[in-house]
Write a structure and sequence with these properties.
The structure is a single chain. 64% of the residues lie in helices and 4% in strands. It has a two-stranded antiparallel ribbon. 25% of the residues are buried. About 6% of the residues have low confidence.
Length: 285
């Protein structure tokens, strides 16, 4: 008897083909993160997301942010902060402000306009003495930034430290600080923070270096110095808080150029003191 044909047994479980898993390259992932960063920046300024970039719906449907996303976001933000001007724009802005400052200084009544800037450079000069005295083991007993009628534009009273370095730190400090500001001004996004930082440092120096002098015989000189110091600090902090990045950058660069050029003017003072001498003692003599 012939065998009955066997029925083919079929499993009730059907194997499904495995879905294809798309592995994103590092470059694609970086592009997505950059797109997200631009979308967040646009939303902060009231702008709609650009086509092709993820919006709020995409964020809700997508994966939750993780450490990988956060790390690359911080890198992107830092890169944006330290983005500098192009070379041609940088040079044009720098030399334009140099010429402008020279022209303004020759105009009638320029002394009144540049008086706050002169007080600023005097503050930087005296802080150079004070900080160097402290850095070399000394102490500061008092500081002024107004004329005393004896040929001094400002004075720093210190004890101890390396006198050879402390005396030179006024002119050298102005030079180094001016050049540092010129360098930092090429990063527009940092200008607001730098102005606030400079204002805060001047305020602290005014209170701690000038304050003790209120109990001395130079009360009026110290008082006017403190008023100048606190006023400069308030203006710098205000500019840092209120100005836009571009305007804050111009203000910072103008301040940097004037401070750096003051160091050049100091060379003339030193040469005159060396050749002809001076009636009053000063750093130059």
């Amino acid at each position: 008897m012939a065998d009955a044909p066997k029925k083919k047994e079929q499993s009730k479980f059907k194997l499904k083909s495995a879905p294809e898993i798309k592995v994103k390259t590092a470059e694609e992932r970086l592009q997505e993160l950059e797109a997200e960063l631009h979308a967040e920046s646009g939303a902060a300024h009231g702008l709609a997301p650009i086509a092709g970039q993820p919006g709020e719906g995409d964020k809700q449907a997508g994966a939750k942010p993780n450490a990988f996303n956060g790390a690359f976001s911080k890198i992107a933000v830092q890169r944006d902060l330290f983005q500098s001007h192009g070379t041609s724009r940088k040079m044009l802005l720098f030399w334009g402000l140099v010429v402008l400052s020279v022209v303004l200084s020759k105009l009638p009544g320029a002394d009144i306009f540049f008086l706050p800037l002169n007080q600023f450079t005097t503050m930087v000069h005296e802080m150079g003495h004070a900080l160097t005295a402290i850095a070399t083991g000394g102490a500061v007993n008092g500081m002024t930034i107004v004329a005393d009628g004896q040929g001094h534009g400002g004075l720093t009273h210190s004890m101890g430290g390396i006198e050879f370095l402390v005396i030179q730190a006024g002119y050298m400090g102005t030079t180094i600080f001016g050049c540092l500001l010129v360098y930092m001004s090429q990063f527009p996004k940092l200008s607001k923070g730098i102005l606030i930082g400079i204002g805060s440092i001047i305020a602290l120096a005014t209170l701690f270096f000038m304050g003790p002098g209120l109990l001395s015989m130079q009360f009026l000189q110290v008082l006017f110095s403190m008023l100048w110091g606190l006023a400069m600090a308030a203006v710098l902090v205000y500019l840092g808080l209120k100005l836009k990045d571009a305007n804050a950058n111009i203000a910072l660069l103008f301040l940097a150029i004037y401070t750096a050029m003051d160091s050049l003017r100091s060379i003339v003072v030193v040469l005159n003191a060396s050749v002809s001498g001076a009636a009053a003692w000063s750093d130059a003599t």
